[in-house]
Amino acid sequence: MGFEKLINMIAETPQPPYYAVIFSSIRTTGDKGYSEMGGKMLNTKSKCVFRD
Predict the structure, then answer these.
(1) Residues 6+ away with beta carbon under 8 Å from 8
(2) Alpha carbon distance 35, 32 (integer Å)
(3) Chain segment 2-49, per-residue pLDDT in tens
């Protein structure tokens, strides 16, 4: 594959800075508040301001 074709395949992304939110969990038997916390996380995410 030629260099020009390869360059055209690379996605155009916004200028940095970039941020990542990574969530990991290990489920156990029973809900133990998991659903409630998931709702709170979605609510918090909806309040975030994303800019171009």
Answers:
(1) none
(2) 8
(3) 777 777 777 777 888 888 888 787 878 888 888 888 888 888 877 777
Q: What is the pLDDT of residue 50?
A: 66
Angle at the Cα of 19 (from 22 to 40), degrees rounded to 5? 50
Which amino acid is residue 15, in one-letter code?
Q
Secondary structure letter of residue 16 according to DSSP: S
Single-letter amino acid code for the residue at 8:
N
The CA distance from 40 to 34, in Å, is 10
Scanning the structure block, which residue is given the tokens 């020009």?
4
The pLDDT value given to residue 51 = 63
The dihedral region occupied by 31, where left means phi > 0, alpha psi between -120 and 50, and beta the remainder, is alpha
